[in-house]
Design goal:
Chain lengths: ~190, ~575
């Protein structure tokens, strides 16, 4: 996709849940001229903390600097990066096909078994298929479907990823950060931040 | 439940709780409620009305750089806020604690392109340490407390508070608690003993060590720790532009100024030393030149408080993450006493060469037009080398940095990273307000002067006793120098037809004198220093003067032009 020295990195960011965080993160990529390939944002297991999972093609030196710059932002709790070997990761894709076209194909049992497809919706006009997997897998299904029928809509999510090589629980990390709190210092109720 | 007061009054009370005594600003529509509250606090704040919001930010920067406290700047929304952008960017580059409080349209109008609405948080996120929009009076104390904590701790920087008008008017209880902690922000990282030990080992093994001193030493109040460290291991040192005055000029181990127009000795020795110890500096390209040929022979030690600076521009052999004051103390304890007499003496030949080829001509000319260097040297000496130097940007800045002498810390205020022309006049105002008992000397070119000369109005109104020295060569001197050296003397847009600067000073009731002849210079300087009132000294300097030594941008640090090629 990019030049050969580039590796696909997955950047994971835990942040405070405040307006404008995505902008703070994305401008750091923009400044180093890195394109964000995929992006997924959601609340984490702990209330008030959001998690960003970002993939980008970069060289090792640049990604390290970018992640340090992200981590430096006051509203960012922690940022780190991994390559694919360190991660279990997944994407989800949805495919919309006209019902009559799908029926004309005859049987789709084999395709469903091969690709582990789920059918989410089926009505007179359209069928919506779902497939989870790596980019290559969801892409392969798209290619095969496209050869056979007209895919009306295709959408793929950003990556979600879990680190498999080291134990780093968010709660432990927070406890570690909170241990820096000055003795006797009581924080105001963490501001809701809207 | 305690009494409800307006958001604007909450802001005033909060600033008092943070020990603020000085505010620079400019009023306007969306910040009027705050200025109304300020009216009742005139006895508690020294409020200074500048003539432009950019001036307010630079004045607050000058104040912060000299006092060490955050500079406070109060402006309105829209154009008031955008005019403050240059100061915010400048403070970010130069790690200056600055708090800009800007008015904003009321929350319900946000995003509607309301009159004087601008997305200030969006604009300033990349150029500030923290930017936050206050939309409710209940959030003011929380935001202000965090703003002070973030701006002034760790590596300092600018914080922007975008203050919606409804939050200024709306009422809430006043309850103030200073911020001392926020998760995810570690201003003073714990210093690793292992890192100290590896750095100490390299220093103990060094035969030819060289230290590079940055502003981190000043920001960390680590001047004494630096001195003990350098003396214990007998290490020669040189400063970056912003690190100047961390060591007195006459300190035995001070070998001068680094970088593009720095002293020949430390630049040559950078590529000769065996251990390079960088303290609170960031290996800016104006210091390093070409990184591919920079100090390749040396083991590099980098002390810095900001983890993102380590290994950013230069790969280091030993890093020490932490506050310079503590790191230097631990490092001094961990190293052995040493003597490097021969190595230190080896700087002499470069010093002599630089004196012969550059300094003698620049500082002690016997005939010809007046040189910038001689003006700066005379003024520095006339102030007993105790004045605060403020500069604008360009030849005036580099000449002043080279030839001014320092006996006290926090004695230079200059726009280093951003290189903001027009910084000088307002920054000098802020510096003088922060240190009314010290002399403040501003060196400014004819170009930069005209970028913010409206601030003479601030000087007039407040009678701020800054000494303005215009080094007038009727050119944008540094641009012209580059055009002479690299663009075949094609002086595109660098020629200035200037107004009568003396008449401008007269209009603002500022005492002034113009000097065109060397023999009148000393007397004029004495007159300038005869009182503590504002003064403008206009010196006609050599038209096509050059700043030497010079390492062309991107060249090897040891490729130094001396002007005799």
């Amino acid at each position: 996709m990019e030049n050969e020295n580039m590796t696909l990195y997955t950047v994971s960011v835990f942040s405070e849940n405040r307006v404008g965080l995505l902008n703070q993160i994305s401008i750091i990529f923009t400044r180093r001229r890195l394109n964000i390939e995929t992006l997924s944002v959601s609340p984490s297991a702990l209330k008030g903390i959001h998690k960003f999972t970002i993939t980008t093609f970069s060289d090792a030196d640049t990604i390290e600097k970018v992640v340090k710059q992200i981590d430096k932002r006051v509203d960012i709790i922690k940022a780190f990066y991994n390559t694919d070997e360190d991660l279990v990761y997944q994407e989800i894709a949805l495919y919309k096909i006209a019902t009559d076209q799908l029926i004309k194909l005859g049987s789709i049992e084999e395709m469903i078994r091969t690709y582990n497809i789920r059918i989410l919706e089926m009505n007179e006009t359209c069928v919506v298929l779902e497939k989870t997997g790596h980019y290559e897998e969801t892409q392969a299904l798209f290619s095969e479907l496209s050869q056979k029928v007209n895919v009306l809509q295709f959408i793929r999510s950003g990556r979600v990823a879990i680190n498999k090589s080291k134990i780093e629980r968010l709660s432990d990390m927070l406890a570690n950060l909170n241990s820096r709190k000055p003795e006797g210092y009581v924080e105001d109720d963490e501001y809701a931040g809207y | 439940m305690s009494e409800l007061i307006s958001g604007s009054e909450i802001l005033m009370q909060s600033l008092l709780k943070e020990g603020v005594d000085t505010i620079f600003g400019y009023p306007g529509g969306a910040i009027t409620p705050v200025f109304d509250a300020l009216y009742d606090f005139q006895d508690r704040f020294n409020y200074i009305l500048t003539r432009h919001e950019q001036g307010a930010t630079h004045a607050a920067q000058g104040y912060a750089r000299v006092s060490g406290k955050p500079g406070i700047c109060l402006v309105t929304s829209g154009p008031g806020a955008t005019n403050a952008i240059t100061g915010i960017g400048d403070a970010m580059m130069d790690s200056t604690p600055l708090i800009v409080i800007a008015g904003q349209v009321q929350a319900e109008l946000l995003g509607t392109d309301a009159f004087q609405e601008i997305d200030l948080v969006g604009i300033t996120q990349p150029i500030s340490k923290w930017a936050y929009q206050i939309r409710r009076p209940e959030d003011i104390t929380w935001a202000v407390a965090r703003a002070f904590y973030i701006a002034s701790t760790g590596r300092p920087g600018p914080v922007v508070l975008d203050f919606a008008k409804n939050a200024q008017i709306g009422k809430a209880e006043f309850y103030y608690k200073k911020c001392e902690f926020t998760r995810g922000y570690i201003p003073y990282p714990e210093i690793s003993t292992k890192q100290i030990e590896s750095a100490a080992q390299l220093i103990n093994d060094a035969k030819k060590p060289l230290a590079l001193v940055g502003q981190g030493v000043i920001l960390g109040n680590a001047e004494n720790e630096l001195k003990s460290f350098l003396e214990k291991a007998d290490i020669p040192a040189a400063s970056t532009l912003l690190g100047l005055s961390a060591m007195p000029t006459n300190f035995r181990l001070n070998k001068g100024f680094l970088g593009m127009h720095g002293n020949v000795g430390p630049n040559m020795k950078t590529n000769e030393c065996d251990v390079l110890i960088a303290i609170g500096m960031r290996f800016d390209d104006r210091v390093t030149g070409n990184l591919k040929t920079y100090a390749k022979q040396a083991k590099i030690i980098h002390l810095d408080i900001d983890p993102s600076e380590l290994n950013k521009n230069v790969k280091v052999d030993a890093k020490v993450l932490g506050d310079a004051k503590v790191s230097l103390k631990l490092l001094t304890d961990a190293i052995q006493n040493a003597k490097h007499g021969e190595w230190i003496d080896s700087f002499k030949e470069h010093e002599e060469k630089e004196f012969e080829k550059v300094i003698k001509k620049e500082v002690f000319p016997e005939n010809g037009p007046i040189k910038m260097g001689e003006v700066i040297n005379l003024i520095s000496e006339a102030s007993n080398n105790e004045a605060i130097l403020v500069t604008d940007v360009g030849q005036n800045q580099i000449m002043a940095a080279r030839y001014f002498k320092y006996s006290k810390t926090r004695s230079i205020v200059t726009s280093g990273g951003l290189g903001t022309m027009g910084f000088g006049i307002p920054a000098a105002i802020g510096a003088k307000v922060a240190a009314p008992d010290r002399k403040v000397c501003l060196f400014v070119g004819d170009g930069g002067f005209q970028m913010t000369m409206q601030e003479l109005g601030t000087i007039l109104q407040e009678q701020i006793g800054v000494k303005i020295i215009i080094l007038n060569n009727n050119y944008l001197g540094m641009v012209r120098q580059w055009q002479e050296l690299f663009f075949r003397k094609r002086y595109s847009s660098s020629v200035m037809i200037n107004p009568n600067f003396g008449a401008i000073a007269d209009a603002y009731k500022i005492k002034n004198q113009e000097v065109k002849d060397r023999k009148d210079l000393k007397k004029a300087i004495d007159e300038m220093f005869s009182d503590d009132k504002p003064y403008m000294l206009i010196v006609e300097t050599e038209k096509e003067g050059m700043v030497y030594p010079m390492t062309p941008a991107g060249d090897t640090v040891t490729h130094i032009l001396l002007g005799d090629e």
